[in-house]
């Protein structure tokens, strides 16, 4: 079977504010992501690294391409390359993790560099670099005002201080918070003299749009609210806002006019919008996908497509079901093969936890349905797109809450005659891989095969080796770190339940994973081995994301081979790569 495993970086191109015929984007080069400089005359490849390059920007004049030269763990340095031609030079900033880059109208850059905390630097157009602020804990630089006077930093949205405005000249900073609200930062108005900051706030029942001004503080817009997550960004005129809303596994785009107080639904095709942006010339770009179509860029004008839609063979028929549970209905995307039911069924678990299974292309779905398996993608509690209460519900404990919803979906599909109760598998990546390993030990009677990619296997050990961003999320979910909440971390850890595992287990782990460290995976697999559990461990030479086609192909072929064989199917050869 031919399956499209080419890499696709889900962001629109970034256009230069004062040179809107120039842009940078991340594209595919022989199965890896690299940075390209683009004009209407064509594209020029800027980077060429064995592991690929995914972080880039363009300065407002269009003269320079910025890109981050990192290793597989995400540590590296910023470099700049002339847009037209020429060699890259070091930007003069210290090494660390990329933690935000923003530029003012004159080309001055504010750059966040992550270590155990965050340092913020100002790089002048002549190359001089100043340190303008240092912050403990997790934070990222989000934006710089048009004048370059103010910068804004974001922390965890539910932190007591979720954002900070920094005075670039003095280093003084002002914490932003709204009592009883979570808070996300979008960015400053892209208009000279305008220092309004666009925000999203959330209560227990709704998401709101808000503005912050230096003299007026935070003001929620009373005429707009949403029951699910929103991602706002400015139109170039600073008077309108483009709003991407994710709801029930799909997306929509809306235009909000702040002066007229109007909310207009924009025409888009049914499916998922991975990212959207209004470019400096006013053209709307968005990256669209659905279950049957790989992601591709669409534009309102039809110009500058940077390549047309990608086509690939997609097997199966998509459906969706809502499964009633004591906690509320669990929405599940279901894809079934053409053979008669009941089907061997793969439950594909999304990561996050604050993410979702979307109506979006996934090569694993197509491969599994192509060999006769049904694939269920449940949006258990913790998922986005179903409201703040659903997103924040870990009431039965992290991991265990999600497994209760997973078991309810499995029972529903078995009773409905869709799933063969004797041939069900659980598969996941990142936090989804963690849930798969936890399910193997907590629900051993339900699963005949388990596959986990880049998972958490020992929660306390993973916490200590993870990035500041991951540790901040864990502290919020668990109510503290492992020293403060040892029993909660132990209960949620697959290592605690390893003695109960009965199903064959496949683990694929990344050698340079900075979010789910490889050492704790190796210890868990050793525990499986000591107990005589059938298992297989594979390593990928990559970081957590694995931005190369070779890694994607290894994961897909290994997972399908292992799971299909365990469910009683024939041993499969690896799917061939699309050309």
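^ Assign residues to that structure.
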């Amino acid at each position: 079977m031919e399956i499209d495993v080419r890499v696709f970086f889900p962001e629109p191109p970034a256009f230069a504010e004062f040179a809107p015929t120039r842009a940078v984007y991340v594209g595919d080069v022989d199965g890896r992501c690299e940075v390209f400089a683009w004009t209407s005359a064509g594209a020029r490849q800027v980077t060429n690294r064995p592991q690929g390059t995914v972080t880039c920007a363009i300065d407002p004049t269009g003269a320079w391409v910025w890109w981050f030269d990192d290793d597989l763990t995400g540590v590296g340095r910023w470099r700049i390359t002339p847009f037209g031609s020429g060699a890259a030079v070091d930007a003069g900033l210290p090494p660390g993790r990329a933690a935000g880059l923003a530029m003012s109208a004159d080309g001055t850059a504010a750059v966040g560099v992550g270590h155990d905390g965050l340092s913020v630097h100002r790089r002048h157009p002549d190359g001089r670099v100043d340190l303008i602020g240092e912050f403990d804990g997790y934070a990222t630089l989000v934006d710089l005002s048009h004048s370059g006077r103010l910068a804004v930093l974001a922390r965890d949205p539910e932190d007591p201080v979720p954002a900070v405005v920094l005075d670039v000249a003095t280093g003084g900073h002002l914490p932003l918070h709204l009592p009883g609200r979570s808070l996300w930062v979008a960015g400053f108005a892209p208009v000279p003299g305008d220092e309004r900051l666009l925000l999203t706030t959330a209560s227990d029942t709704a998401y709101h749009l808000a503005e912050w001004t230096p003299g007026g503080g935070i003001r929620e817009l009373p005429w707009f609210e949403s029951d699910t997550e929103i991602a706002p960004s400015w139109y170039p005129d600073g008077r309108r806002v483009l709003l991407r809303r994710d709801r029930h596994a799909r997306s929509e785009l809306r235009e909000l006019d702040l002066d007229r107080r109007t909310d207009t639904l924009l025409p888009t095709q049914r499916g998922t919008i991975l990212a959207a942006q209004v470019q400096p010339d006013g053209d709307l770009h968005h990256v669209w996908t659905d279950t049957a179509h790989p992601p591709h860029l669409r534009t309102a004008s039809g110009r500058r497509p940077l390549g047309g839609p990608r086509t690939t063979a997609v097997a199966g028929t998509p459906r969706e079901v809502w499964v009633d549970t004591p906690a509320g209905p669990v929405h599940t995307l279901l894809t079934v093969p053409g053979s008669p039911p009941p089907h061997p069924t793969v439950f594909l678990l999304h990561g996050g936890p604050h993410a979702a299974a979307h109506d979006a292309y996934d090569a694993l779905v197509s491969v599994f349905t192509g060999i006769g398996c049904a694939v269920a993608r449940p949006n258990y509690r913790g998922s986005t797109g179903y409201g703040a209460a659903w997103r924040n519900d870990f009431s039965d404990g992290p991991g265990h809450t999600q497994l209760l919803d997973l078991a309810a979906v499995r029972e529903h599909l078995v009773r409905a005659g869709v799933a063969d109760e004797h041939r069900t598998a659980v598969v996941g990546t990142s936090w989804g891989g963690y849930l798969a390993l936890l399910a193997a030990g907590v629900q051993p009677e339900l699963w005949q095969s388990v596959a986990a990619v880049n998972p958490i296997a020992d929660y306390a050990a993973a916490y200590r080796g993870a990035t500041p961003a991951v540790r901040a999320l864990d502290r919020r979910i668990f109510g503290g770190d492992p020293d403060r909440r040892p029993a909660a971390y132990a209960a949620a850890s697959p290592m605690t339940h390893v003695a109960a595992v009965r199903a064959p287990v496949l683990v694929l782990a990344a050698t340079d994973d900075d979010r789910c460290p490889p050492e704790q995976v190796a210890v868990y697999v050793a525990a499986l081995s000591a107990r005589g559990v059938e298992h297989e461990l594979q390593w990928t030479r990559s970081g957590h994301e694995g931005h190369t086609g070779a890694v994607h192909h290894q994961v897909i072929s290994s997972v399908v081979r292992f799971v299909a064989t365990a469910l009683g199917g024939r041993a499969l050869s690896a799917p061939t790569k699309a050309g």
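The longest strand covers residues 19-29.
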